[in-house]
Amino acid sequence: MNSFEQEIAEALAATGSFEKEAALKLISVPPDTTHGNFTIPCFSLAKVMRKAPKMIAEDLAAQVKLPAGLSKVEAVNGYLNFFIDRGFLAKSTLEEIAAKGLEYGHAAPNGKVVCIDFSSPNIGKELAFHHLRSTMIGNSLSRIYKAAGYKVERINHLGDWGTAFGKLIVMYLREKRPTDDATLDSLTVKELNILYAAFSKASKEEPGLEDEARAAFTKLEQGDEFYRKLWTAFRAATLKELMRIYDMMGVGFDHYTGESFFEDKIPAILDELREKNLMVKSQDLDVVMLDEFDLNPCLIRKSDGSTLYATRDLAAACYRKKEYNFDKCLYVVDLGQALHFKQVFHVLKKMGREWYKDMYHIPFGVILQLVDGKWEKGKTRTGTASLLRDVIEAAQKKILEFIDEKNPNLENKELIARQIGISALTFNDLKNSRLKDVRFDWDAVMSFEGDTGPYVQNAHVRLCSIMRKAGIDRADLAAAIKDVNFAELSDDAAYSLINILSKKGKKILDAVAGDEPSVLAQYALEIAEAAHKFIHEDRVLGSAEEKSRLFLVQATQIVLENVLDLLGLFPIRQM
RNA sequence: GCCCUUGUAGCUCAGUUGGAUAGAGUGUCAGCCUCCGAAGUUGAAGGUCAUGCGUUCGAAUCGCAUCAAGGGUACCA
């Protein structure tokens, strides 16, 4: 892909009209392929060359010597359009896919490290549907960065420390729950969640309860043994359920270093802030002033001396830099916390950590749910948020009905139904720009036609089905290429599919550049649509072009499988 | 008040560094299974790109202003 642009630029430079670098900058991709594969708009050249753009394009078209692999150059309305030879594109693209397989379009290792902090749910609460966003965006980004050549450290910064535990402890003791080992061992998140909601309700009537919770957390932070024991039980109960769900979704982490992990690393941070005279008293708390950046002060310690979110994030950032020596550190956290991260990054700057500029908040919009006829943010606390496992179960059930109707003899249909369901939810989350709020419309999410996960999976399944009937496997790819006649893959349906496949590498880089999995989700849709069209229009099995077309089916399958994998979707083979 | 994000077809959204006739899906209407999976495919209809001004040969895209929605803004995370 890149080399085409290089060669066009060189050929243009050879006409003597302008420099290669300038030509390279002008090359762009036309909106549709009827205008070719590359184009040079000549309008900006008009002033320098003192000619009408139309004339410039026509003159260049006449002068330029067409590089190998290009079939045509033409001047249209001031645009100079280049067309790639279909057979050449088929050959170069498919040969590379045959050689690289699943890793076609991936970049070579670049020696860089990226830390990605994602999911990071709060302990003591059930995973709500909106936690899917950070989890799935982060999961996909970590796969995409790896494909782009990075070493990735996937970090789950569990919310396992803070006032929330004060609340749980207060409520647990207030309700006089048993605190023997056996009871604590068998605690479930469900119970904790109810406790949490009960606290919210009670604190509305008793304002003093919040203070009580804060005091309980302070006691926990100071090392009270009994409180520690309760905290450990709460944490273990939540983690058990979390792992079950991550496992089901195919999400993994390299580190579960939650907030509590940084507890003993905080004093050093406080000392440093004090030594550098950055920490001041304001309204009875310790803060770092950020006036010079037009930001509110960053709160470091509460009036009772206990720590805050920002304090622990500072310790975590310094720890990560020391431990992983990252080139980039990403925080996949919702948009509402933009100010918090800005503050933390600027405190690091004031501390003289030059790497503060490698820290990125990757924000995303919230999931809105219909509550009493209005779209609002679901809250675990008030019980308006749908629980992730409920949503997954509902999706699975609905898809199972679908399978029973269409393909009742499918083996493992419960598992496959769940995988399709999870993929549908994931895709719904990833297909749009991350900053957009997602309206969780049950009907839209549970419909499996059009721009959905199942649409993409269905394309993959159909490709696999043809391969199964032909008795071939993905592993035959490298050997099968020698039987391909590339000229047989130059009809519109085959060509446009190949053209899309050839863009995989660029799409991965685009997704990394914008930290945007939706780039690849949209790309998956493009592949699926072109694949559906190809097998609809070009009969594969039994045709005169069977070997060539079968190879394109295999190549498409392997590209699609990897794109699905990069998105964190299950590339299932039957449905 | 200040700050951040969003505004494109009835609905949900794409639209790359400014470039050719602003594209999909969904919904509505009309077609396509004796043929590799119809969870598919072909077509029709549907637009003041929130509004105004500006920059430019050229603006959905860049700048300024206004409007609307959502979020944040000192002891939650």
Explain this structure:
This protein is an alpha/beta fold and 575 residues long. The protein has helices at residues 2-14, 20-26, 45-49, 53-63, 86-100, 131-147, 163-174, 181-185, 189-205, 208-221, 225-249, 266-275, 309-324, 338-350, 388-406, 413-430, 442-445, 453-470, 477-480, 492-501, 504-514, 518-537, 546-567, and strands at 38-41, 70-76, 79-84, 113-117, 151-155, 279-282, 285-288, 298-301, 328-332, 359-362, 367-371, 374-377, 438-439. The structure holds one RNA strand of 77 nucleotides.
Give the fraction of residues assigned to helices: 40-55%
- The chain-level mean pLDDT equals 91
Q: Spell out the CATH superfamily of the domain at 388-567.
A: Isoleucyl-tRNA Synthetase, Domain 1
- The strands making up the biggest β-sheet line up spatially as 5-4-9-10
- Backbone shape: globular
- Extended strand count: 13
CATH topology of the domain at 388-567: Isoleucyl-tRNA Synthetase, Domain 1
Q: Give the CATH architecture of the domain at 388-567.
A: Orthogonal Bundle
From the helix content, strand content and strand pairing, which structural class follows? Answer: alpha/beta
Mind describing the biggest β-sheet? 4 strands, parallel
The rounded distance between the terminal residues' Cα atoms is 35 Å
Quaternary structure classification: single chain
Provide the CATH top-level class of the domain at 388-567.
Answer: Mainly Alpha
Which runs of at least 5 residues are low in confidence (pLDDT < 50)?
none
Strand content: 5-15%
- Number of helical elements: 23
- Return Rg in Å: 28 Å
